[in-house]
Amino acid sequence: MACAQLTELRIIGLDEQLHGLAALKAAMPRLRVVTSSSGRGSVSRARHQVHAQAQATGFKHAHVEASKLALQALKESEINRYAGNGKPVLLSIGLTINNAPVSVRERLAVPEAEWPRAIQELCQYPHIEEAAVLSTCNRMELYVVALSWHRGVREVEDWMVRSSGIPLEELRPYLFLLRDRDATHHLLRVSGGLDSLVMGEGQILAQVRQVHEVGPGFGRLINGLFKQTITAGKHVLTVGQTAGPGFVRNINGLFKQAITAVKRVHKVGQTAGPGFGRHINGLFKQAITAGKRVRSETSISVGGVSVSSAAAELVQLKLPTHSFADAKICIIGAGKMSTLLVKHLASKGCTEVTILNRSLPRAEALAADFPDVKFNIHLMGDLMSCVESHDVVFAASGSEELLLNKADIEGMAQRPDAVGGVRRFVDISVPRNIDPDVNELARRAIVYNVDDLKEVVAANKEGRAAAAAEAEILLKEEMRAFEAWRDSLETVPTIKALRNKAEAIRAGEFEKAAAKMGEGLTKKQMKAIEELSKGIVNKLLHGPMAALRCDSADPDAVEQTLANMTALERMFALDAVAEALAASASQRNKDTMQSLRAPVASKAGLRQAAASGVRPVIAASVRPVRGALQVAAAVHLDFETKAFEKKLVSFAGHEEYIIVGGRDKFDKLPTAFKGMKTIGVLGWGSQAPAQAQNLKDSIAAAGLDITVKIGLRKSSPSWAEAEATGFTEANGTLGEVFDVVAESDMVLLLISDAAQAKLYPRLLAAMKPGSTLGLSHGFLLGVMKNDNVDFRKDINVVLVAPKGMGPSVRRLYEQGKSVNGAGINCSFAIHQNYTGNAGDIAIGWAVAVGAPFAFPTTLESEYKSDIYGERCILLGGLHGMSEALFRRYTRQGMSDEEAFKQSVECITGRVSKTISTQGMLAVYNQFNDADKKTFTEAYTASFKPAMDICMEIYEDVASGNEIKSVVQAGSRFDRFPMGKIDGTYMWKVGERVRAVRDESKIPLNPFTAGVYCATMMATIEVLRIKGHPYSEICNESIIEATDSLNPYMHARGVAFMVDNCSYTARLGSRKWAPRFDYILEQQAFVDIDEGRAMDNKEVFAKFLSDPVHSALATCSEMRPSVDISVGGEGSSVGVGAGKARTEFRSVSAA
């Protein structure tokens, strides 16, 4: 076993709470297991890191086993797997007779006896916690509770492919996929018979009930056994303690330990075993209740309809005389379907039936239920003779193999004219029992399957339409009840956190008291004092605990319980506890505990991502890089929208959904902005003027009566600028900030980062319940995470982030009126979906501001990639490498002007244009052999040092340190204002170079190009490791650099950008540019000069074959048809609001 070749497994942060190490060591005798504490709050701050060193021959499999074992160890620990910030995702995926032919359904069908096995296999996937299988002749549906929407979908699809042998690309067109409320509603409709082939049929309710009986993974028998064992153990312990000296101390302790162990196994079995957990169990209970109500309170089931009745009716229609009196009937199977068949055949005048079955007792039991019907019972050995002697053969067995085919039938005698001379087969089994090739004997035999029953049941649906409408009303009530119950589960982590905190305080105080009392008290007295302390705590907690428990499904009662939860979390400071538990196995686990086939991550950490409307799927591969484990992940995000059409695009083989915008989508805005009367836009900096005007124009074009209103301080100089643009207090489109917030249905927070950090508590408090908070940058989320607070739960939180600065957004929008495709692409995110339509609102916003294409992300992913990117290749990295290259070239004897051309001008000019239009590989490919060698050495030597800094930057951003430093610096600006760099010698040289620039003479230096491409690829690689989608990677690391920022810096200068961009970016560049400068100078250039540049040749080989080149090509196809450019030095072109010369103008692409 490759796993046995591992030499070390390092697990940090679990301390004594990690169980199963003995089993690990036994399975892997050469394994050295190292555990260490993570310091204060080991569970809440746990870092789970797997470091595996394997023999070279076993590396490929060893890291997979290490990941699986580490995850299993985590599962077996006492970390609360339900302590995330949001409910797990409930999803339903499958196929039905309505969307898949029987030829597909039968390959996925799971016999009832195999349901437990299927559930167990599903729950072995790392992101699936609960599962249920509903497999009938008309459907095969899986219900799953997953920690991540798309990771769960991916794992279910993987199971389906493995189970059926059908490739995913062939299977996908037939699958339906539903989430949360939609999945709940679907199962309720199924149970009520509204989704059945025969509307209102009763058998499906019995099948749903059977799923509930089969589902629980721990099993009622084992559950009861352990309960009884615990009771018995307690009884023995009580009797023994009162029996006198015979019950010695050792036996007393032994029984206590045994009872504790049994309780632990019972608890683990109930909560961790595969199958039904509280969510699936509750869902199916509600479905059964709903099914009963539909049948008892409506007339939908009057007449006793079912698949069996439809099959009997179909045959009756096909017989020439429409009578069973002239036909000899045979049924294969003696189960429930066969019983129903006999019932309906008898009701239609059939008096004699032949039954074929594997065993006699079941067939005889069926016959005993129908004394008025004559039965001829045969075993399956008589199959061929029975088929030959009968006119109509129904197949309703549980066989998974074909029982009859064309070769079996073609030699049989033709049937009499009374039945049309044709032997009719009706196969209502799934999988099918009769090969459809029998239909090739058209004049002698014909086969009908379940799908052929549709013509019979069409009239049934029309006749039951009124009852179905009544049933839908009942189902809505049942769905509200289930959702309310599910919401009530949110109090569970709070209950645990409150009890844990109280116990920690009690135990600490007891220990202090015990230490003060010394040894003066007996053990009995000490125990009495400890029990007293526990009793006091329990009595004090009784009231709060009662307020957190809600047994009612009444939404009002649940709402009150959740309000109590919020109040208690605030009073007892439980937010920090809950967040710490959720973070205990979050990002670091996702980064390190991943396997080759499917990445493995902490379920507790993944639960945080599951709360949003955008859901990630991560597909990863692991490869050795200088002996380390490096995870390369590609994330694919899905989202919910009813107003817009999603487009599936492949980026380097990784599929992502995007939105295609354009003015032709304005007719969707009434749906997206339904119910809105006022959109408030706060601020008047870079983005606000552009987005406000674009929204105003788009809303008018869509014919909507929505007011776009600017919110500013009256004392702000921006007030007059807003008025000059047409937003005035007189016409109701300009007002004081907090007044605008209070009246708006959607609030776009486009003020500075520093202002957001300062004002967000007041802004959130002023918003209307049910309104939407819109962000164009995820910075605020990072600030709030540092402050250990969350957004209000009764609002939507969405993001739309244009990939260009404000005036560009406006100018390209205006050109989009006449130039097809003009506009600024953007990313969007749904962080909190309170009203259920936040996805439509976010996409509507993106379309309304003029985005030709919109790419999904998450709020957290956006702020991490954005703040990280501007510190790396977008600005800080470019700034640092420019200074390092300039110094290197001047030392080599170049003039100052030539050194500037060979470094900065080369990057912002030739290199950027080439990457923008042809990709990174084109930069390398246009060199001659000698220059290719120079590029290769520069790239190879620079990549690892750049990766070092990039990884450090990302970790600082992800941990909140970078945002914290920005907020702290903002508080010092009144005393220590930020200086500028444009007065330094190098950048003064740049002014002279730009003044006499000849674009045709800008050089393409292979050394400079190699250093720049290496830093760009390092920026990309870290984002990929950290799980960002390719669309975000390409847009944030490449396109924004080469299509937006570099052209701007080419016209105005790198120093101008560093001195005039946002405070967040300026601070980042000042902090990190020197780090890039020094590490290139001290490591990369030294390796090149000393001939060590090519020590790691695989780095450059990876560059040549990296899939990001393909992803970039796909992204480039979505570039706007209008380029972004700026005027030169001193130009007024591109001057933004408030004379802020920080923007672009647009020109038609050549």
What would you note in describing this structure?
This protein is an alpha/beta fold. The protein has a ten-stranded mixed β-sheet, sandwiched between helices. Strand 1, helix 1 (21-27) and strand 2 (32-36) form a beta-alpha-beta unit. The longest helix is centred in the last third of the chain and has 31 residues, at 929-959. It is globular.
State the main characteristics.
single chain, six-stranded parallel beta sheet, 45 helices, globular, disordered N terminus
Adjacency order of strands in the biggest sheet: 15-16-24-23-22-21-20-17-18-19
Q: Uncertain runs with pLDDT below 50, 5 residues or more?
A: 1-85, 217-226, 245-250, 264-273, 577-636, 1131-1150
Q: Which of globular, elongated, flat, extended, rod-shaped describes the shape?
A: globular
**Largest sheet, described in full?**
10 strands, mixed
- The percent range for strand residues is 5-15%
Number of helices: 45
Q: Radius of gyration over alpha carbons? A: 35 Å
Which percent range fits the helix content? 40-55%
Mean pLDDT: 78
Structural class: alpha/beta
Distance between the termini: 61 Å
Based on DSSP secondary structure assignment, what is the total number of beta strands?
26
In brief, what are we looking at here?
This protein is α/β, with parallel strands linked by helices. The chain contains 45 helices and 26 strands.
